[in-house]
Every structure is written in structure tokens, then in C-alpha cells.
Amino acid sequence: MNVSMKIKVLKNKTGMVSGVVIPTEDLHEVKESIKQGTELYKVIADLLMDQPNAPESEIVLSHGKTIVESETDALVLTRALYTDAFRKGIPMFYRDKRVNHPNEFVRANPDGSEDLVSFDAPTRSYTLIRNLAPAGKGFWADLISA
Questions:
Q1: Residue among 84, 82, 124 nearest 107 (CA)
Q2: FRET partner for 30 with CA separation of 20 to 30 A, picked from 5, 93, 102, 110?
Q3: The pTM is what?
Q4: For 28-62, how does the pLDDT look when each residue is reduced to its tens digit (9 = 90+)?
Q5: 119 Cβ neighbours under 8 A, 6+ residues apart
Q6: Are 91 and 39 in a shared domain?
Q7: pLDDT category, 2, cuts 50, 70, 90?
Q8: How many Cα atoms are found within 13 Å in the side-chain-facing hemisphere of 48?
Q9: Read out DSSP for the chain?
Q10: What does the pLDDT average to over 115-129?
């Protein structure tokens, strides 16, 4: 299999694999690596049948917008939510490649700094692991004056 495939493994809260997302453009390669006649081979073959080769900017989803338009809308909404939270002095939490464990999060603080924190569900408390970015230098820092 090509190492440039963008397969995404989905895990539940306990870390168990609950699904796999394979981009459509990689399905042909996956199909070639599966034994013909198997159920999975048939499913992938059916998915690929009459599949248009349109770029993401041209594929229209069931709600009438393209993938690119939908991603843009999601980014605008996310930025508005973060801006509103920061104005109220509320930190926001997210995960990215700097997070290594299921109970860890990046805490984006209203001053534009970021911390790596762990969350203890039974006590509903966060523990600082380390500072990731100083005030005004975090990923969402451009929103603090918005």
C-alpha cells in the first residue's frame, strides 16, 4: 500500500478502534490489495462504480454545498465560538498532534497562550502538564483581539 494514503483511524473514548476512513481517491489502491470475491472487495467495487472523479471543490453534498464550502463554514463557526469564549475569559480545549494520550488536551487560553493538560473525569479537573505557547503565540492567538 502507498504510504501517502490518508487513512484515518477512528477510536472511541477508551482507545479501541471503532472505524476507518479511507478517502475515495485511495479506494482503487485498497481494492487492488484485497482478495477478489470477498465481501469487502464487493463493497469497495460497488462504491467505486460510477464514482465521479471530481475534486473536493466540485463535489456537492446532500445539503447543497461542496466539501470545500462546508469546511469553510465549519472554520468560520469554530473561529466565532473560540472568539466568543475568549471574550468571556473561557479557555477552549482541542486535540492535535501534540496530544499523545486520550485524556490529554491542548487548552487554548483567552490570553493567546496554550497548555498541554490532562483531564481527570472523576474529579472533572485539569492538570497542567506543560506550557506549549506563551501569551499571544498560540494557534488561536489571532482571535484574542477580535
A1: 82
A2: 102
A3: 0.58
A4: 788 788 888 888 888 888 777 766 666 666 778 88
A5: 103, 104, 105, 125, 126
A6: no
A7: very low
A8: 17
A9: --TT---EEEE-TTS-EEEEE--GGGHHHHHHTS-TTSHHHHHHHHHHTT-----TTTPBPTTS-BHHHHHHHHHHHHHHHHHHHHHTT--EEE--TT--STTEEEEE-TTS-EEEEEEETTTTEEEEEEEEE-TT-STTGGGTT-
A10: 96
Residues in the chain: 146
**Statement to judge: residues 72 and 34 lie in one domain:** no
| Total count of domains within the chain | 2
Q: Is residue 28 part of a domain?
A: yes
Residue predicted with more confidence, 94 or 54? 94
- Its domain, for residue 134, covers 67-143
Average pLDDT of the chain is 87
d(CA 110, CA 119): 19
